[in-house]
């Protein structure tokens, strides 16, 4: 591709119209104006090309140069990404800070990764072996958490398929030199570049049959998402979307976490940025930052870079997926991305669709969500990897009928609706179990029955039924008062109350409560139903309702969430025995 | 700086607060210009949009009197800048930064771009320093920390400004010497402006305050500049001179309405309730300027005030604000009518940064649990109140009755503290005492 040079014709908001870029391709990155701001071609009309500019356009003047780079927007992929913090176009914010940049000025150019750093490379292939696209040719000693696999890029030097290795290095290598040379002269380095808007290839998609473990009861038990699935978390402001995202980033069982702060608050990002290097991952005891890459474009950073941020994030996620890892991509919030799209669309004076969003909103959104999935990796190594996407949606006024929620719904397999009523009474996570759903349950039921307990799906169904009955009874109570209910029904209200307090509410600030294994979740349900069944039996035998409701066991059941995972089964067994004894069953 | 003064008599169109001018050589996006009227008067303007033949200029003091023949555009070559100085305390300026207190203009130590630059998220310091406002509903349940932006969602006629002033003067006592206040007022009436100054002077906070006041009678477009001038001054005081600045912006509803006015004059495609689609981004460019920076002493804490049109919290202005700010303090008309002051309806209130600023060594161990219990108990009391409306008190259990009296007592004594200044210990002790009215689980 050749480099072209044109001139600024007009500027409005984050878009620039350039003249004289004849023959420029869509989505080519250009340097705009004297400061060389990065921009991307998003419309071509005759001799005029419109660019969205990733930096503040203030100060640009008509007639200044616009120079095309001949390449689309790329990210640099390789060792050293983990633990890093990047903006929407992969500028390293942490390294900018070290260079004294507390306020982000325009035109800063810093390489995303330090290419001069020396990495210790161990080859897995030898001279004469064949290397195929996507195949792992060696590893790099990383941070002790993740083995960084060096792959042959899927389209090395513009494609051409596999080749025979003529030379492969061992030991210290920097990012600027090849680690492997093929007989046809092509070279493979530690780093590759990939265009963010193009999904990275894989061999085949696999069905979603393994649950993505969050350790959160309301998600894992009631509305699970599969590894490689997508979940959306819609909720008005203050319902706890960000807390859900951060909890999953901290506690979920993932090899890699990509956290995309898209158009959100700077102060909330400081929590992740300052806590993750210190917080330990549960299984490994290593800092959470060792498995995390943060992409952050806060609400006051340029909107075009916000639009790019989720693609930058998912491309990095795909890179680790291709190494055979299970990746969680957390996007907070996809609505801010959609708004960036809307803002740019309105500058282009495109015909607006619903709520002013461009009609192609759903298509673009689908292009993002569909990059999630569990796949068989491209190389011949038999690796599988997955990307699970959990994205927050911020509907205006908390109204789920708006376009971004609705468009997301058509792609998401799990819907975790957050409810302001619950949030107001500090019921967290504020998941409304009536409107939430998971389409993965059928696919995951096999795994849950096998790995947790055969009656796990049955207990879940019973719990949902109990909650439904509770909702119906509460409507009756609204009319006739609770004293007028049948005693049996008052027990249902009580069991539902206990379920809310001990099972649905979960606190990440309480160590034993923060992460629950499937086993603990299962046994908690067992205890709840043991209480309900025994109490019903006692009631039948003539025990007074008041005596049941005032039983000290009730408080022990409510507090059972504070027992650690390791001792839970034993404690729960004892509690169930206690319940049976007390109620004489 | 140009040696020759350039003037362009090329105005081709005038609409609302906007003018179109042709062929301004070297015009830059965001550049400030003067508009010279034939009678010698001058207006300020800013370039909003550029093409190779035309510039769209937003005129700050209104377009009245500008014509297409004799009026001239004089570019300055500079973006909108604010002259800043440390000697601003006790001073009152208009919405564009000119003194209106009868004293001479300040002598700027520096000129800073009013638009500001986004803080590098990696440079931000975790906001974890508790600010005692002396208000129980805030300190106890929705704690404010340094660097936070916590708006007050008010309704027409509710005492938001009184509350903001109470916060400012009580925080001043607790925060001591490095504390100062920057007030940015947009579209307030001269009566409000007067009462603001009076209250600040009476509480002794004025000597630590700088005020930028755009009155309702001033040109609307100035309102877009007022908060930016206030925040640029605040940034200078905080990050250059180490002050802990509390910025009060009022009324953000007037600001947003101005944004809508400009949007429609530019014939932009309107968004929800005809506010521009970029309002989220625009508001974020103000609110996100709150914060702390690693290795620097000062901080910017922001308390914006907005009026919810028709008390509707889903209206775009409170809605978008709530999505950007770190929580909100919501005032309730029902409580106000009951004579509760401050009429803070705690249920929809939130402080997202609360957990960072409370607990052992900051406020008290067990603060979080206490706040959660107060919330649950109050929410349950409100449920019971609704129930009573339908089934009467007879249908209630004894437990329900306890929650019912708790909710009343909570509103009257915990939230409704009047003008008193409570320490955090007083607030938490009161909370614990109230919780004795209801069962433990």
Beta-strand residue percentage of chain B: 15-25%
Strand content of chain A: 15-25%
What value does the average pLDDT of chain A take?
93
- Regarding CATH, which class of the largest domain in chain A? Alpha Beta
The dominant shape of chain A is: globular
Overall residue-averaged pLDDT value of chain B: 92
Low-confidence stretches of chain B: none
Oligomer: heterodimer
Helix/sheet category of chain A: alpha+beta
For the terminal residues of chain A, how far apart are their CA atoms? Answer: 81 Å
Roughly what percent helix of chain B?
A: 25-40%
**How does the helix and strand content of chain B classify structurally?**
alpha/beta
Task: Give the beta-strand count of chain B.
Answer: 17
Q: How many E-type strands of chain A?
A: 26
Total count of domains of chain B = 3
* Helical content of chain A (DSSP H or I, runs of 4+): 25-40%
Given this structure, which CATH class of the largest domain in chain B is correct?
Alpha Beta
Number of domains of chain A: 4
Main attributes?
heterodimer; A: 585 residues; alpha+beta; Elongation Factor Tu (Ef-tu), domain 3; OB fold (Dihydrolipoamide Acetyltransferase, E2P); Rossmann fold; 4 domains; ten-stranded mixed β-sheet; six-stranded antiparallel barrel; 26 strands; globular; B: 441 residues; alpha/beta; 3 domains; six-stranded antiparallel β-sheet; 33% helix
Description:
The complex is a heterodimer of chains A (585) and B (441). Chain A is an alpha+beta fold. In chain A, 34% of the residues lie in helices and 22% in strands. In chain A, strands 8, 18, 19, 20, 21, 22, 23, 24, 25 and 26 form a ten-stranded mixed beta sheet that branches. In chain A, strands 1-2-5-4-3-6 form a six-stranded antiparallel β-barrel. In chain A, helix 5 packs across helix 6 (334-347) and helix 12 (487-504) runs antiparallel to helix 14 (518-540). The mean pLDDT of chain B is 92. Chain B is α/β, with parallel strands linked by helices. Chain B folds into three domains: 11-78, Elongation Factor Tu (Ef-tu), domain 3, CATH 2.40.30; 82-357, Rossmann fold (3-Layer(aba) Sandwich); 367-435. In chain B, helix 10 crosses helix 11 (398-415). Chain B is built from twelve helices and 17 strands. The interface between A and B is large, with 81 and 85 residues.
